[in-house]
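Q&A log
Question type: sequence-to-structure
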Amino acid sequence: MPKRRYGSKEIELDAEDHKEVAESQLDADVLDLLGTDPIPDLDCITQSRVLELACLNLNKDIKKILNGLPIEECLFGGERIETKKILERSRQKLKASLARSKMTRKPLAAKFLNYKNPLQTRPQGAPQSKRRSGFSRAPHYHASQQRPGADRRSLGSTRLAKGGGYTFLKGPRQGVHPKQINWSSKELELLQAFVSKLLEMGAISEVRPIPKIDLFATRINTKSKIFVSWLRYPEAYAVDAFTVD
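Response status: OK
Response body:
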């Protein structure tokens, strides 16, 4: 049996009956061998064990309190921050902005297919009663044709000469005699100069063929010489020679 000496007394301890006391006495024996006083050491050990148990219970109590207590009350007092509502409102705003961007955004291919020239589109506004100029094409007039409301004298010399040449080349087929047209001296001079230029162009096209002149020169060579001779000597040609039945 283990024995322990307290001052002048020796106490025998039964380890089987008193295990807790024996363990504390064993710790005291170890401390005694180290040269320390066993009584204060025993008190310190018991106090530390009591503190450990108290701390464990305290930790459990603190955990229960913290689990049941809202964290915002601990941080900000009694004012609770409605973070859930704030996040929900921001999510709805973001969702609405994404929906608007999807509605306005178009794919790249659709942009090219639905492209309209801004110069051809009408501005957004009140409907107009009159037709805008530029949206309807005017009827095509040939150089020899008289536009409605236009004076023959207002035409330029180049257009007048071209119109006269076209009328002469087309006239005999339609039964129009050159003498039936009222030509002035200025118009005859312009036509004579115009036909001489055409003859020069025909001569150039024979030496060096030009595609744009070839198509027109074949038609000119048939009647241009007759037209020049008629301008020089109109009396030599009879009226019946150009009539078509």
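Response note: The first strand starts at residue 3 and ends at 6.
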